[in-house]
Design goal:
The chain is of the alpha+beta class and about 290 residues long. About 25% of the residues lie in helices and about 20% in strands.
Length: about 290
């Protein structure tokens, strides 16, 4: 699943490639993925262009020429956005399936631009969605997201409030998008390790120092992951055609049973926490 660093990498790349290009046609092959009536969706977007691409958490927000409206795209678990022109095919999002022979059976929505430029929305499991919304609806949706690392609302005071009077596991809290936007399974495991906190530990047992360490680790890990263009395990490519390489820097995620890179003494353990595979070092994390 793409997480904040992957989606931010996609956002930055798409801004370089699709802004100001006129949408001359839109194909919707799976209308269940479009959360507007199909005819409205197609007719509204035709002859418009995108003036910006922003993001909140893992939700991409395409600003339309008609400034009162926005196209929201959420990749969810297996979504991909694939930009194609005569010289290149660039993709971002989920790591598979391979982006060959486009359009393929996973190409559910296709945007056509002049000079044979296309933007494909591919989705293997079809959990993602596209939706045109007005300014008011966009603001309501954005308001449902929590504070986000590297944004101005991500202050220690706001972070500390989130932890107050909670009796759930640390990882469960960090994964809650209504509390903290953009963190997923990969980066929460890395944040907990960086902070020296067990992911299954109950929030109400944390000290203020523990919470401060989680706060700092969230900023550091996300910043590093964006700088490295995200994480990849197979054929993930960002919108510059480059593979994310933060996987080279992962300390715990995907390394269960291996020796901890931090202490060099303990083998990493893996448990299921709320149905999510969770890896940690029992020596480094308390």
């Amino acid at each position: 699943m793409p997480e904040l660093p992957e989606v931010e990498t996609i956002r930055q790349g798409l801004r370089q490639n699709i802004l100001a290009k006129k949408i001359i046609a839109v194909e919707v092959k799976k209308k269940n993925l479009v959360k507007n009536p199909k005819k409205y969706f197609v007719d509204f977007l035709q002859n418009q262009h995108f003036v910006d691409v922003s993001r909140i958490g893992k939700l991409l927000i395409f600003h339309l020429q008609n400034k009162d409206y926005f196209l929201l795209i959420h990749l969810k678990m297996t979504g991909q956005l694939i930009y194609q022109d005569k010289k290149q095919t660039l993709a971002g999002g989920h790591s598979g399936p391979k982006i060959t022979d486009l359009p393929n059976k996973y190409s559910h929505v296709i945007f056509h631009f002049p000079q044979d430029v296309k933007l494909f929305f591919n989705d293997l499991r079809q959990f993602g969605y596209l939706k045109i919304v007005n300014q008011q609806d966009k603001e309501k949706i954005v308001a449902q997201f929590g504070i986000e690392p590297l944004q101005t609302n991500f202050t220690f005071a706001n972070f500390l409030k989130i932890f107050k009077n909670k009796r759930i596991a640390v990882k469960t809290l960090l994964l809650n998008q209504k509390l903290i936007a953009g963190l997923g399974n990969i980066y929460v495991d890395e944040v907990c390790h960086q902070a020296g906190v067990l992911p299954q530990r109950l929030v109400n047992t944390l000290t203020e120092v523990d919470i401060k360490n989680l706060f700092k680790a969230s900023q550091k890990i996300i910043k590093q992951a964006i700088a490295k263009r995200g994480t990849t395990f197979s054929d993930y490519r960002d919108t510059d055609g480059k593979s994310g390489n933060f996987s080279d820097y992962l300390k715990v995620y995907g390394r269960s049973g291996e020796l901890c890179l931090t202490c060099g003494q303990e083998s990493l353990k893996k448990i299921k926490l709320n149905g999510r595979g969770t890896v940690f070092c029992a020596l480094c994390q308390k």
